[in-house]
Fold:
Amino acid sequence: MAFSMRHACTEDFMPARKTQNHLLTFLSIDFRHIGALFCILVLSSLFAGPAPGSAEMTITLTISGIEGEQTHQIAREIIEEAYARIGISVTFLFVPGKRSLMMANNGRVDGDLARILGTETVYENLLPVPTRVLDFSAVAFTKRADITVNNWQELQGYRVGIIRGIRYSEIGTRGMNPRYADNMQHLFQLLDQGRVDVAIATIRAGMSEIAVHYPQGEIHQAGDVLHTEPLHHFLHRKHKEIIPLLDNALNEMTQTGIIRKIAEETFQTRLAPKEADNP
Structure:
């Protein structure tokens, strides 16, 4: 009888034990699934977030440039492409040349489009990107047929016009008491009005200005190239961690010919005057 009761009790508890075992097994499986799902979510959040230089970055920088300066318009197209390649959005603010440098140096904007090396020695908060944006060649332009200028020294004795804040021309005409223009259009107005004898500008910018505003005029290149130098993009030092990324992008664009292609296409587009410019 004791055996029977014990057996009966055992039999009575068997379903409960089986149910408990099934529940534990279910919970064990369920917790494992939940744990795996948690790990996946954590890893996804880590790897799905935008890494520096990824296309999903939301950072936006503001870069200043020289208003009315065609070389900076070309640089804008190149720099915009370089930033896009490292996943950074960029906007541009065009102001007079010196103001552009001061704004970049003071941190009011994040950098300056394109300047010669050595700018960082004067504007100490600006750091250059090692790979050049593009090269430029500067010449003298004039309306006078009797003027030929093949080097800086031959500018002596002439009324020389340059754009304020463009450092290569400020350096080249040091001691010559040049007349300062606000931008490229103003510079060529001074030349056309006879208020200066020669105007210093890059070949691209000068030829573009002539094509757009003085196609039937007498303004022409006055001699050989005065100065050739590469232009570099500058960033405020607070963004120094971006410089290696941007340098790699510009180097790749140089090696694949993208920079040359952008420069040529932009220059040709700006050389072709619109109908509204030629009544």
